[in-house]
Design goal:
- The chain is mainly α.
- It has one domain (about 10-505).
- The chain has 22 helices and 2 strands.
- It has a two-stranded antiparallel sheet.
- Helix 13 packs parallel to helix 19.
- The radius of gyration is 22 Å and the shape is globular.
Length: about 500
């Protein structure tokens, strides 16, 4: 339990399932069931978000350890416990998950008209899996939540997606599941050495140097797909294009952070020797992702696909920051993860707004929206500038810190990584110009209406967060500064100890 003896994390994790049970128990005609499902899902997710704010308010940023820890014996004979807790790295991602869920439910209010009850149930289950994954302090519990995310997202894409939804859902599932099999093998090996699956205990375990190499590669197979890193990124554009708007928001806003979170939770702190050894490889893959997918984004004609490829490029910057293994780089990676969750989610919502009106995502079919939708055009401009990394917006701080950390490692790493910002300006401004400016020549002009109050309510918190993170970044980075500093010190101490042993043996 936490200090107050109240299982707050468990409540935040499992309360969405309670809402799901209520939704499934509702009976009546189809319209009444759909309405009750929408309102139940919305109120449940709002209550969960308010509870998660308590974590934010009561979290001690000066404490680098885990807080709000809850432990319950589950399989003691195997060394497995139900254990939850958050540190400076995970607490804000729990909050991000609970914040985006009600926005996604509100964004789906009118666009989802079939199997509404099942759709809302899938989102509540997905919220439980996301929060549980970030809060898990037992490797087995983490693995269960990590894999559990696949099921509701698979259904969201496969049932409520576009024309090629089944292909995209199966591709998404197979890619992510294949990598996770190797992570399961790594879990078993680490369990054998540490004698427990408690993450806190495993962080204090010194795994043999040669074993670290194999463990790192096994974990890489899973986390690289989730990021996704080049060349295992090809499932993402298909998933984004076919997913409903809210599915794309959660996919970009939260699920892409799972792989980077895995690197920070397991690979970097538990396998310091292998992390140091494979850092150049990770840099190379990340730089290719930043440059290659940015160029691919420039060639896209589909709005969703362009933003999907931009997500791969931005996550490449995150990988660079993580493996700089210095405070600036890792802090920048965390900030970039958080800001990308907000900004990319907002961009997919922007696409969803016009798609709901005109029912096409082809860039060439748009133009002149500034004349009919000035408020929408203003919001789209803000999120476009944030994606580019304009100072004063959420996107600038993370990229700047990553480049500072990369410069400490290698000048060319920072130089190549910065190309992502330049190319990002190219494809995002291309997208904005084609959609917002020019002259409207459409025959369905009456369908182009300004944002509704519901849509404004969805965008309002994202606007606030985008500006807040850009203007006052320390209010977010203060949560993880102590944790990141402790991680870097632990990594350097492990390397120093290894070098000392090697010197003595010689």
């Amino acid at each position: 339990m936490n200090a107050a003896g109240f299982p707050l994390l468990s409540l935040v994790t499992w309360l969405p399932l309670v809402g799901g049970l209520i939704i499934m128990s509702v009976r009546g005609d189809e319209a009444a069931v759909a309405s009750n499902a929408r309102w139940t899902a919305l109120w449940t997710s709002l209550i969960v978000f308010v509870l998660s704010l308590v974590l934010w308010v009561r979290f001690d940023g000066a404490n680098p350890g885990f807080q709000f820890v809850e432990t319950v014996a589950w399989l003691p004979q195997l060394g497995i416990t139900y254990k939850l807790g958050v540190d400076g790295i995970s607490v804000l991602f729990v909050l991000l998950s609970t914040a985006l869920t009600p926005l996604c439910i509100l964004a789906s209010w009118e666009s989802i008209t079939t199997r509404v009850r099942e759709y809302m149930l899938a989102f509540l289950i997905l919220e439980t899996m996301m929060v549980g994954m970030f809060a898990a302090l037992d490797f087995v519990v983490f693995y269960m939540f990590f894999e559990g995310v696949l099921i509701p997202m698979y259904l969201i894409i496969g049932v409520w997606g576009g024309p090629r939804r089944v292909y995209a859902a199966i591709k998404f599932f197979l890619f992510t599941l294949a990598g996770s099999v190797l992570m399961l093998l790594a879990l078993l090996a680490m369990w054998h050495v540490a004698g427990t699956t408690d993450i806190q205990a495993m962080l204090q375990t010194q795994f043999p140097a040669q074993m670290q190499t194999y463990l790192f590669l096994a974990l890489l197979a899973s986390f690289a797909v989730k990021v996704p890193m080049w060349p295992v990124h090809t499932w993402l554009p298909d998933a984004h294009v076919e997913a409903p708007t809210a599915g794309s928001v959660i996919l970009a806003g939260v699920l892409l952070k799972m792989g980077a979170y895995g690197f920070l939770r397991f690979s970097v702190p538990m396998l310091p020797l292998a992390t140091e050894k494979f850092a150049p490889l990770m840099f190379a893959l990340a730089v290719v992702a930043v440059i290659y997918t940015s160029l691919v984004a420039l060639a896209q004609t589909d709005m969703k696909k362009l933003i999907a490829y931009s997500s791969v490029a931005h996550m490449g910057v995150v990988v660079i920051g993580i493996f700089t293994l210095n405070v600036q780089g890792i802090s920048g990676a965390l900030f970039q993860m958080l800001s990308h969750g907000v900004v990319s989610g907002a961009l997919f919502l922007c696409v969803g707004v016009v798609y709901d009106r005109i029912h096409t995502r082809e860039i060439a079919r748009y133009g002149g929206l500034a004349d009919r939708m000035p408020a929408y055009s203003l919001l789209f401009m803000l999120f476009t500038m944030a994606s580019i990394g304009l100072p004063g917006t959420a996107g600038f701080v993370g990229e700047f810190l990553v480049l500072v950390g990369a410069f400490q490692v290698n000048f060319w790493l920072a130089a190549l990584g910065s190309l992502g910002m330049i190319l990002g300006a190219c494809y995002m401004l291309y997208l904005y110009r084609r959609i917002v400016f020019g002259r409207i020549t459409r025959s369905d002009l009456k369908a182009i209406l300004e944002l509704s109050p519901r849509e404004m309510a969805v965008f309002a918190p994202l606007v606030i967060l985008t500006l807040w993170m850009g203007i006052y970044p320390s209010s977010f980075s203060g949560f993880w500064n102590a944790t990141v500093s402790a991680m870097v010190e632990h990594h350097q101490a492990a390397l120093a100890a290894t070098h000392t042993i090697a010197t003595v043996m010689r």
